[in-house]
Amino acid sequence: MSQHQSNTLPPAYFDHVYQANRDPWNFETSPYERAKYAATLAALPRPHYAEVFEIGCSLGVLTAQLAPRCGHLLAVDVSEAALAQARVRCAALPQVEISLMRVPEEFPAQQFDLIMLSEVGYYWSAADLARAADQLIVALNPGGQLLLVHWTPPVHDYPLTGDDVHQFFLAKTGSGGPLRHLTGQRHETYRLDLLEKH
């Protein structure tokens, strides 16, 4: 029997983490994170995306790096403590809109050319992952891209693993599926997959 819980982790989980430590996952200083962000940005094949949605922007470290390639970047998170830091970090980037939003319970009513799901999917229950995936696919313009980046080792209090999340989306790239798989990378502790809507 898996020791993983089955429910999506609530916003309070993240608020407590950020209240205990302003950068709990060392997004600002970790060489691992720096290398992963570089790989993430390098995996995007287009120099510019008009409308971009980043789910789980946290402190906005990746947001600020992604912003120069965006016409408009909607960056959301469930933790107001994290967003306060993201707003400061992205204050000089007028194309960035930062918002408190809990996906899949809440979802923007617009279309996107790129959706970034980085280190978020394993916090969802299997049911919420399925619900979010449907929303993401609907929200992508034809030819729009979905970039998935997730830590792969299991974490005992996360409902899913990074591999669970990526395999779920990759299953939608089969014959007749709504997505196609453009590229994938597996590193020692994370994986990256770029998908595109037909």
- Strand order of the main beta sheet, please? 3-2-1-4-5-7-6
Could you estimate the helical fraction of the residues in percent? 25-40%
Number of helices: 6
Report Rg.
Answer: 16 Å
Q: How many angstroms does the end-to-end distance come to?
A: 38 Å
Morphology: globular
Poorly predicted runs of 5 or more residues = none
Rounded mean pLDDT is 93
The helix-and-strand class reads alpha/beta
Oligomeric composition of the shown chains: single chain
* Portion in beta strands: 25-35%
Largest sheet: 7 strands, mixed
What order do the helices and strands follow? HHEHEHEEHEHEE
Strand tally: 7
How would you sum up this structure, described in words?
With 198 residues, the chain is of the alpha/beta class. 31% of the residues lie in helices and 28% in strands. The chain is built from six helices and seven strands; from the N terminus they run ααβαβαββαβαββ. It has a seven-stranded mixed sheet, with helices on both faces. β4 (112-118), α5 (126-139) and β5 form a beta-alpha-beta unit. It starts with 10 loop residues before the first helix and ends with a strand. The model has no long low-confidence stretch (mean pLDDT 93).
